[in-house]
Predict the structure.
Amino acid sequence: MTNFYVSLRLADMVQPCWLVKGFCLRCSSININLRNLTRAGDRDTPSLRGKTNIWRDFVSGKKKEVVWPVLPPGISLTDTHCHLDMDDYQDDYRQVIDNAVKCGVQRIITIGIDLESSRKAIELAASDEHIYASVGVHPHNVSGLIVDHYDELRRLAASPKVVGFGEIGLDLVKSYAPVAEQKEHFKRQVTLAKELDLPLIVHDREAHVEVMEILAQAAPFPAGGVMHCFSGDPALAKQVMSLGFYLSVPGVVTFNKAETMQEVVRTVPLSSLLLETDGPYLAPVPRRGKRNEPALLLFTAARVAELKGVSLGEVASATTANACRLFGF
Ligand SMILES: [Zn+2]
Ligand SMILES: [Zn+2]
């Protein structure tokens, strides 16, 4: 497979270069650097002409080159888990969405974590063709949920661009809500999601055994589901797949020490994988520690391609097809 990479200079984000075949007519610099990583049998060779200076708006910060993977034409990525309603995106929301689309991230699911963010997710989805919504209450926020709130969730879930139910689950790292309450509301929300025939978006943080126990009791799941930001080992991956669930890979896979996750990506078939940013959190290398945004999904996809020994185009088309199957885009 052949992948081309484009690298641009800091100056481009301040004042874009006028690039013609990599040569800038204004500042006379050559600022495209193609690194041809060739493997036999590749068919997706992207055309770079006219696409080279679209990164200037968000390649910010230090004076160093950032190398951006480029998707083959006609192939898109789907960010299956992002929190677009969060304050982190308030100042440059439009730019964030434009960056994503320019990078080929054609669909973004913005995730509800409580009633308010579920409502906001629906609003954002209604305002942009690229955005879809999920509704649900995150384990951090389940304290005090009463029947009225469940009625509201049911009502919200009927909105046209709601494609999933979540994020729901258990979080034993930061127990903002007592574990017993988390479990009770996880079960109740699983039941509601099944009744509404929506795929589950499950949050499992240090709660593998407990989450799997609740899911096993509630199986089967005709509408399917996803274990978002999957953090288990290959054995847990098998259990999750046996429920008919997908595993969603976050930017963590690009971290050097994420060996277990890399092993999972190597062993799990592409047909069971989804990609996500979980933005604004967990930005991939080379933006680790900074704000994450959907455009950066390219780096996660590129690392998955590398680990699986396939092209970026194959990873993008397979994971997008999986997302379409699960969420019914
Ligand atoms: Zn989560
Ligand atoms: Zn999340």
In short: The chain is about 35% helix and 15% strand. Residues 167, 203, 228-229 surround zinc ion (ligand 1) (CB under 6 Å). The chain has two domains: 1-70, 71-327. Residues 179-196 form the longest helix (18 residues).
